[in-house]
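Homework-ish question, so no full write-ups if that breaks the rules, but can someone show me the predicted structure for this set?
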Amino acid sequence: MIRIAIDGPGGAGKSTIAKLVGDKLGLEYIDTGAMYRAVGLKLNRKGIKPDDLISISNVLEETTIDFVNGKIILDGDDVSDIIRTQEISKFASIYSQIPEVRSKLVDIQRRIAAGKSVIMDGRDIGTNVLTDAELKVFLTADSMVRARRRYEELRSKGVNANLDDIHEEIKERDYQDMNRKLNPLVQAEDAIRLDTSDMTIDEVVNTIVAMAARVS
Ligand code: C5P
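A: Not a homework solution, just the prediction itself:
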């Protein structure tokens, strides 16, 4: 059994890389960011403010989040595509600071990973969710490189985007994720740092596959 934890800032390529490594090694891939995005989507749709902890707890109690064939299912609906906007990124980052939200999602994450080989990506996987993972990778890249990747991705989908705005949003989200009180984004002591600024996707995937071969 091998559990691989991939953490790092937004736009470092975690999801793309984790999915590909998972395919190569036959591991189930769990995108924890998608779970925070789904909760952000629901709380925002309901107009619940981040300081309304009672309403948040009530909503969480009646919320189900699941992965089916790589799709994220919120209360029975596939929300995989609609959670991928810059707006939902912001909500996810805001609501992910709330202890009730984190504890509910961390419970689900640990339950999904229990007793099987997985690759899970997020911000606190190596430091909190799977502290005894066999391999921990901290994936990072220069913030301008990350902004440019996101910009190219949006442009390729025909979405109008402004590089400087995306760069500002990425830096703001980094700040929020690294400075929140609960489970902030930090590199685990036993994680291997991989700066992907000058690496291709293939190079990153092959590097992680080689690391996995060494620990299993
Ligand atoms: O990885 P992604 O950009 O989809 O994550 C969206 C947001 O969810 C992050 O900015 C972060 O605030 C939050 N998140 C988190 N812990 C995780 C995964 C994501 O707080 N394990």
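Now go work out the reasoning yourself. Hint: The pocket of cytidine-5'-monophosphate is lined by residues 10, 32-33, 36-37, 89, 92-93, 96, 122-124, 173, 177 (CB under 6 Å).
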